[in-house]
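pinging the channel bc i need a second pair of eyes. not urgent but kinda urgent?? the chain im working w is below, pasted from the shared doc
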Amino acid sequence: MDLTIETLRERVRGTVISRQDNGFEQARSVYNAMIDRRPQVVVRCVNAGDAVATVDYARENGLDLAVRGGGHSVPGFGTCDDGVVLDLTPMHGVRVSPGGRTARAEGGTTWGNLDAATHAFGLATTGGLISTTGIGGLTLGGGIGHLARGLGLSCDNLVSADVVTAAGELVVADERQHEDLFWALRGGGGNFGVVTSFEYRLAPVRDIYGGLIFFEVDQAPNVLRAFREIITRAPEEFSAFPAFQIAPPLPFIPENRHGDVLIAIVACWAGPMDAGPAVVQPLRDIAPIVAEHVGPTPYPRLNSAFDALVPPGLQHYWKANFVVELTDEMIAAHARFGPKVPALNSTVHIYPIDGACHRVAADATAFAYRDANFAAVIAGMWPNPADNEANIAWVRDYYAGTAPHSEEGGYVNFMAGDDQDRIKANYKGNYDRLVQVKREYDPQNLFHLNQNIRP
């Protein structure tokens, strides 16, 4: 029998917001302003029971179900037209076990909240590069961040997960129970259920030595070649990534350079503080420096350094690929398209994912590209919808220029909504097993608003 909204309201402790209710316009809005959808109802869950009731409601009524954690999904997977939005954002509690070096965080937690909670105890795990990103989407897709070379991906540090399945059951997935589900959650995205709680392994990281170094954009080929050599030899506690960036109006950048396109390197040394200057020095020696802001800083501060450039309400269109080798041909392609970055908010990053990421077997988790050394993202972000056509064309042209020198698959968290045809390539040899897990836990594909693995 169909469940009614009235029944849903009775079952849910949180807030059920329909189109007729006050606050609906705010409740339906998402991070990417390019996405404008009107769900039937938004359920702001405050506990796992609310998530169970919401899943039941969507399933029994045959409605699309969108699951929203941090809400940063570029393709807009956190909302839908005429369906149900299961909004986890009110569930943001974090409990840290300093002695056990673990943290349990609810599914709507952002990386800023998690970092703040763990930093108090001098601990951290690999997280995203924008503090307002949700832990859920990032971890389920893999989880690339500053600490990945030393600690592995976010999903590599996942100890257990509380999951609401398509059948409306709450299960615990870890290495001992629901092992196939736990395997699939670590890189397989939101295909398998609603994760209402994540438990992470933590490591002793409090302050880091790092920051930004800007070079002239015409030095891009030299910067990228030098970066390729430096990062290959660097200790795993050191991470750095290059970025094409229009210089923002920051105090440490000369005022006459604000608005110029530059190439930056973002550095993070998570080893002994007194060794930081020597570790970073090879980056400083690459080319004449336009501006620099590098030194000791709390890890959460670096993890939120780009927040001001990516506020809610921008237009977003992204593309991505994994890269085994940063070849001279690839560098030439970046040098051709990177300087054309069209807006202050837009950027291109090339993240290193070697080190600890490579010590996990390709079939040990759903995240398959354990031989890739880099994950590149072309992140088109801009404020004015009138620029959509031109800026989307920049992203697509850039992607077309770099794809021949990249792997076939890419990081699902950086994919656009029109990348569904790449799903199988994104998972290489793990795809067939993911399909089997999908058939077991979601045979009717209730969780299909994602980079979808069809059962």
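so The two ends are 25 Å apart (CA to CA). and Residues 388-402 form the longest helix (15 residues). — does that match what u expected or am i reading it wrong
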